[in-house]
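queue> holo job accepted (alpha-D-galactopyranose)
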Amino acid sequence: MAVPASPALADATRGRILFGGDYNPEQWPEETWYEDVRLMKDAGVNSVTLGVFSWAKLEPHPGAREFGWLDRLMDLMHEGGIGVVLATPTSSPPPWMGRLHPDTLPRDEDGRTEWWGGRQHFSHSSATYRRCAAAITEDLAARYAAHPALTLWHINNEYCTFDYGDEAAAAFRRWLREKYGTLDALNNAWGTAFWSQGYDSWDGILPPRHAHYLKNPTQVLDFRRFTSDMLLECCTAERDIIRRYTPHIPVTTNFMPLWIGQDAWRWAEEEDVVSVDLYPDPRDPLGAQHGALIQDMTRSQARGPWMLMEQAAGPVNWRGVNHPKPRGLGRLWSLQAVARGADAVCYFQWRQSRQGAEKFHSGMVGHAGEQGRTFQEIKQIGAELARIGAEVTGSRISADVAILHDWHSWWAATQDGRPSTEVDHPAVLHSWHRALWEAHLTTDFAHPEHDLSAYRLVVVPQLYVLTDAAIENLLAYVRGGGTLVCGFLTGVADQDDRVRPGGMDGRLRDLFGIRTLHEWWPLAAGETVECDGPRSGFRGTLWSEELEAEPEAMAARYKGGELDGYPAVLRRGRAWYFSTLPEPDALRELLSGIASDAGAGPVLDGLPTGVEAVRRGDLLFVLNHGREPAAVAVPGTHRNLLTGETVTDNLLLGRYGVAVLRP
Ligand code: GLA
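queue> job finished
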């Protein structure tokens, strides 16, 4: 989304919500394709993603090109009025590539080769892989640039690989030379005085391969940065080829939800459209909140409408026990994505496979076929999305609250040799988001160096690493009248994972009124600490701290135990610091109070538990995540766009019921 002239999702949607999914027709005889088009039209499908795993079909031998089958499909889709999201097939190279060019195969940290026979067996650093990927991308772009079915480009699929092999090692050294310039600077940043790790030559530096004991944490951190950058280079190389042919067609690559391997803030800057794959567990009581978190994060990366590239129509096949979606849940979660900013609702995959590793993963057309319950529900979803598309697409969501998240901090915090293995970064993020979600506060995500001035409340669940620029940004935000709430283990280290003097940045300690941070007291799994105030008592989990505070900053204290009387929550003006993680109900209550004082309120007052409300543009989405009916007060007169009915003041939603209300 870098330059204003870039194409955007709106160029692909044209006022409709994109509805469809990954379509892998190469797995089926051609007769089936005609049947597919008939069923797609029946279900209101207007978009399919072709070619994600087609490399071996397109290039069965080195340099060969077999486009005939894809030509026929592109034409068939166009005749059926179905747009094509055309994928570059570069996430799964054909077997010949590994056989003829073993240098394209990645190695894990133990030196084991990742062979063909699965997928994603490519090294991001391999010159041969990059050359072959560029060639097939170029030929695809040239061939289909003018095809009327083409609506969007989809690069690769879920970039997520690591490589510790020799070519990656050489690339890592180049990356480090560029970053540090001199070996002295690298030795200093990595703290190599520790354990005799000083480098006397660039040639001595390796990826953090298997080692006898704990690895150098900054080497690990830089390797994660390098990996994200290398994968992004692969992606932008393909994007740049495509843009030469179709500057007017938007380009995306699909993210995995909250995936540790990619700095998605950085990646999103390089995309025209941000898209994500999302698979909440239908049995997870917090599945809807997990969905909301990913949707909020993706919308924030997109800075506007985004694309749900993949979800499951029924069960996945990669959990221990794979549950289908109960009747109505697929519809509810699809509309939830739209409520939270999606202008595309797509699935993996159109037709459930009969062979291969994912044959027990659901499809929009399952093994039960057109009479199956899943397909019947898909038809309903397609029809409803068509009904609301014109009023929804392109509209925005505005949030008073932002949660800060940063991959570099996550990478540094998620390493061995830390105070507690119980502190899991994504779990902490989920806890804080859950509290806000259950309080019915609409939340964006933001990077710690983003402009935060539009938010009334900024929440930092945990940013173990904060750069100086980020710290100054937080201070300026509070100075400018914003309310800041920080969780523990924030501002501990600088960008090199060097602990800041005093165990936490001095500017932040002043902000919160911390005089001395004596010790961290992490809690064991299931262990809690009693706390009192600020409004009522609560129990803290995961973590506690022995710290000395300015007396006026004390907002809640630990009660009993070793830390009896020490501060648990600090408050100085509009800056709050939580040295423990309150249990869910308490965190929700505490945050609701702070948000309300900051002028940030729930979407609707008096919403029952389990009912979610989101305002998108002029529309109010109300979603019942419960299995029991729910009565919701919605003052005023509205039209429910899903049913055409008029709703005045009160709305009754059945199990998994949804209303999309227009004033
Ligand atoms: C990911 C991939 C798909 C498929 C699904 C299965 O999202 O992108 O190709 O493997 O998972 O859930």
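queue> The chain has a mean pLDDT of 97.
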